Amino acid sequence: MGWLLRPWVGSLYVSYEILGVRAIPRAPAVPVIYVLWHEVLMLPATRHARVAMPIISRSFDGEVAFRLVRSLRGHAIRGSTDHHGKYRGGWSVLCEILERGKNASIAVVLDGPVGPSRRASRGAVVLAARTGMPVVPVGIGYSACRHVGHPDRRMALPFPFCRAVVVIGKPLCPAGEDLRSDLHRLQVAMDETQARAESLARR
User: Fold this and answer.
1) What is the reported pLDDT for 6?
2) Could you report the per-residue pLDDT of 74-122, keeping only the tens digit for each?
3) Which domain holds residue 104?
4) Alpha helices by DSSP H, the chain
5) Strands 106-109 and 53-56
6) CA-to-CA distance for 70 and 57, rounded, in angstroms?
7) Signed CA dihedral, 9, 36, 65, 198: sign only
């Protein structure tokens, strides 16, 4: 699949606005947890597979994404947030990050793998509190795209040669003392970052 997506994504005119940590397209000096929405995963998975290790679910969609990252010579961690008492690999994700010594940035899809779309789950907040890694919100907007798939797992497919804007928000440092408050702050930051990316892309 990489052979198809690389020229497609490579045709985009990509620009960056960095509001906080110096990050993409260069790796930050301190490992961070990048967070983004599922629908805009295509661009970072194709262009920045080596900047941060994505945490990819064990679902069918996750297997497709995992093979894509591997085809682009990137590395990934399999697992996702546990939901409704069902184990989805959340504990193994935390263990693997701790074993790696937090020496590599990771990327987390906040609303995957079950949705709802653009609703932050607690996984990134828990990881940040346990590891001490800051959370960096990422918003991605396209000047022209088409959404496909289920409303809670939709993907934005940018038109070739359109403009793409990546906004890197200011890092957050959840302490884990008030999960609901941390999650609300993250949701607000993600909404603002994504809205800014989409607004800049449409100009």
Assistant:
1) 80
2) 677 776 655 445 545 556 666 766 666 566 788 888 987 677 899 998 8
3) 2-202
4) 2-10, 42-47, 60-71, 90-99, 123-131, 179-202
5) parallel
6) 15
7) negative
3-state secondary structure of 80: coil
Q: How many CB atoms lie within 10 A of CB 191?
A: 14
Residue labelled with tokens 């920045």:
48
pLDDT tens digits for range 74-83 = 677 776 655 4
- Taking the C-alpha atoms of residue 90 and residue 79, their distance in angstroms, rounded to an integer, is 6
Q: What share of the chain is helix, strand, coil (3-state, %, to 5)?
A: 35, 20, 40
Q: Which sign does the torsion angle of CA 13, 156, 165, 170 carry?
A: negative
Report how many domains make up the chain: 1
Q: For residue 17, what are the β-bridge partners?
A: 167
Question: Torsion angle, CA of 32/110/68/146, rounded to 10 degrees?
Answer: -130
Classify each residue of 10-39 as buried b or exposed e, where b means 16 or more C-beta atoms within 10 Å of its C-beta: eebebeeeebebebbeebbeebbbbbbbbb
